Amino acid sequence: MSSTHTQLLTDDASGALVERRFRLRVVSGPDQGKELELEAGTTMVGTHADNDLVLSDATVSRYHLEIRIRRDGIEVRDLDTTNGTKHGVARVGQVILVGPARLRLGKHTELDIEPIDSGVELDDWPGDRFCEVLGSAPAMKRLFAMLARAATSEATILLSGETGTGKEAIAEAVHQTSPRGKGPFVVVDCGSIPHELIASELFGHARGAFTGAAADKQGLIEAANRGTLFLDEIGELALDLQPQLLRVLDRRQVRRVGETQAIDVDIRVIAATHRDLRAMVRAGRFREDLYYRLAVVAAHVPPLRDRKSDIPVLAACFAERMGRGTFAQSPALLEQLERHDWPGNVRELRNVVERALSLGTAALADLGDGAARPADAPAAAAATAEEPARPAPPSDVLELPFKEAKAALVESFERDYLTALLARHRGNISRAAAEAGIDRNYIHRLVKKYGLEVDRG
């Protein structure tokens, strides 16, 4: 992908999208006051006349520094000089800078790298969708406009938001509208891959690298070459694996487990989390340098309770995609949906629509928060905290084809069973799996499917 002389990023203080250029300025030494704005490609600094920034300090080498703008910062490389380059008190060979910095070249010259930011004007978003993602609430339109602009760049994007808000669908929309749209979109669920397998899954492995490695295996990062790598629930990535991921982001190279040869990869990275990564950085549970590599463009996906005006169109869309008829939205049902707090967000709404299409609106009588039931829901269907009463399968489900009716009832059972199981164990998946006698990874999949909150610790 071609490089430019600007970066797209979000301002830490305001969250606004800005375009950043960089300027070199000599602040001390015989060439004090010289300036140069960085352009695309490589900028050379030294005393030889062929350099882009020519210095007269005799302690600076003929070809001293090579500077290149990356998608996530400035790469500075000292060209094995005699008197070296220092950043702070450390002599550097190669360093990635993500903000303003001062470098000392040789013995007398200090050089500032200064960001120059200008705001990006975003047009009003037309319509109510971004690819397959729906939303007409103002917060969603702002999000669509920002991400559509970011999609045209190579900027790494970090999506934050509660579980079930649709971060994966939004990431795929960014991919589809980017120059990489015809390449692969590879999803890595950092929260569901067992720790002992994630290195092999991410980086791949060589035959014989460990017991059971019967053949060479391409990792998910390598599989995303010339496309987009989506790191879902990046906050769950183990601390000991974060340096390996950071190296991939810095060098755009991956090394399979058991091999010494690195493989070049051309990837765009989008990450997502429901965690507060800044708080995790302060607590020492997430690397600060990795956070800044990921949060070049940081965007928050609002919860459904903050965009309830989107509920009717989302519900109708889900019903249409399921191909099971129309989701009739009576005034009573709309009032019930409006009053619900939607802790599972858009994913919970999708499950609610599916359950209503399969079992009838009576199955929504226990939709939480004490919401009023639709007029056609029998009082006997109201659940109590002590002993929920479940209605018998209505005629709606019995009129479905056998496979669809069975699937609807199984999903209803899975959701209720899992909710009660996790409640007994306060969301601890390991203990819940032990009691149920099923694999914890299967519970992870069900939790994600039904948008349930769990203890990820």
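(ticket continues) Second input and output from the same batch:
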Amino acid sequence: MIAAVLIGILVAWLAGRGVPLMSEQPVLVTGLLIGTVIGVAFMGGIPVGPLIAAGLLSFIAGKV
């Protein structure tokens, strides 16, 4: 239960980081959507990815 709460906090924080990145660089939205479609179509994913993917990209790229 504690791990689930911590992961929920982490995912919410990462998703929040994606909003400014998607606003600053709208061209990334296309790539994120294509990646999400590929993930859903070929990897059995669930389409909640673009905002979280943007947050992860922001985290990896070192954007605030």
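Agent notes: The helical segments are 2-24, 27-43, 49-61. The mean pLDDT is 84. Closing as not reproducible unless the customer responds.
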